[in-house]
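Please decode residue identities from the backbone states below.
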């Protein structure tokens, strides 16, 4: 049976693995301890934070069909948030999210989606792939411990563009194009409070600030009750400060949040920040994936389409469909 190695167990990798598992022997290699990539959750008892993707929509029938079993068993649920738009510190608009269109989240946490999809897949965790060599008609991957992993016939990279550029061999014709793809950074500020906060929204889009989003994570379905606030910086601010001291970043983002909601969040019982160097990217117009049949390498990921959960699915599925035609 054809052996396929997929690098990265985010949604693009999980989708490709899911679609290919009946046609080949598939192994996923994931650098972190868990599955789901940027569909991420961090816990700090009694708090819980989805510090990557906040929610997702399903615009295409293909994606709706893909998530339907998860909706049926409660792994994906609707988040009917009280949604607000804030300019500076002024609430300029608010509405209740509902059926049209639904805003979906994993339940009881965003990473439940990855756990569901990864349940019957062969995933090697804490395995960061650092190089790949072609010899004896097969690919040989190496991890950061210097171990050479089981040889395979195909390698599919689902890494963000810059990381794929660093990993892929220079002989690949499409590698050069990856170097110029600009993904944007983002900081996620996680704040846990003893008591409920005096805010009148569950999710807010913020403009004219260095923060762009505030959500009450504890308002999402199935979350612990403890008041958990999740704040995103703007991409612009994150790109300018991605190397900065994390205590300073935390303090600054707390200042911004306090000004926006009119409540001093420095007093939070729990404070943490996570910096995403490759958080998202605007809408792309090129190919949804790359596949090189001679060198037996494929490439997918949200960055080929748009920085959205559904885009990662779209790219992963398109790559799997192309590969199925030739293996
Ligand atoms: C802060 C933030 C907010 C977002 N908000 C939303 C939102 O509200 N709605 C929405 O639709 N989308 C949102 N997104 C985007 C969405 O999360 C992504 O589009 C989607 O999850 C990307 O999936 P992917 O599989 O393409 O990439 P990833 O999820 O990044 O998967 C790549 C995987 O590869 C692994 N990896 C990397 N390097 C290696 C290596 N060398 N070896 C092995 N494994 C490796 C990573 O650990 C990761 O698990 C947000 C993203 C962020 C960061």
């Amino acid at each position: 049976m054809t052996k396929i190695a997929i690098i990265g167990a985010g949604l693009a990798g999980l989708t490709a693995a899911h679609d290919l598992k009946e046609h080949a022997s598939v192994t996923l290699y994931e650098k972190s301890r868990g599955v789901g990539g940027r569909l991420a959750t961090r816990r700090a008892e009694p708090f819980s934070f989805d510090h990557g993707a906040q929610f997702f929509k399903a615009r295409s029938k293909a994606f709706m069909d893909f998530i339907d079993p998860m909706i049926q068993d409660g792994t994906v649920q609707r988040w009917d948030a009280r949604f607000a738009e804030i300019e500076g510190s002024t609430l300029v608009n608010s509405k209740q999210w509902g059926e049209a269109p639904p805003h979906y989240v994993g339940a009881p946490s965003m990473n439940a989606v990855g756990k569901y999809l990864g349940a019957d897949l062969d995933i090697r965790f804490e395995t960061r792939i650092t190089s790949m060599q072609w010899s004896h008609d097969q690919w040989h991957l190496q991890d950061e411990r210097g171990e050479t992993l089981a040889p395979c016939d195909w390698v599919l990279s689902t890494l963000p563009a810059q990381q794929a550029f660093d990993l892929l061999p220079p002989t690949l014709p499409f590698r050069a194009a990856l170097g110029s793809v600009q993904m944007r950074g983002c900081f996620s500020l996680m704040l846990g409070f003893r008591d409920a906060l005096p805010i009148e929204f569950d999710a807010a889009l913020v403009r004219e600030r260095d923060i762009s989003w505030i959500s009450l994570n504890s308002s999402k379905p199935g979350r612990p009750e403890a008041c958990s606030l999740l704040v995103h910086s703007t991409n612009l601010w994150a790109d300018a400060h991605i190397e900065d001291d994390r205590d300073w970043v935390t303090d600054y983002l707390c200042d911004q949040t306090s000004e926006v909601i009119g409540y001093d969040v420095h007093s939070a019982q729990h404070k943490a920040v996570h910096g995403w160097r490759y958080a998202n990217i605007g809408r792309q117009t090129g190919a949804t994936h790359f596949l090189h049949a001679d060198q037996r390498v494929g490439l997918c990921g949200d960055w080929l389409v748009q920085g959205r959960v559904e885009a990662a699915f779209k790219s992963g599925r398109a790559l799997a469909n192309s590969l199925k035609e030739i293996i």
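Observation: The helical segments are 11-20, 61-72, 112-118, 161-167, 175-178, 235-241, 246-261, 309-324.
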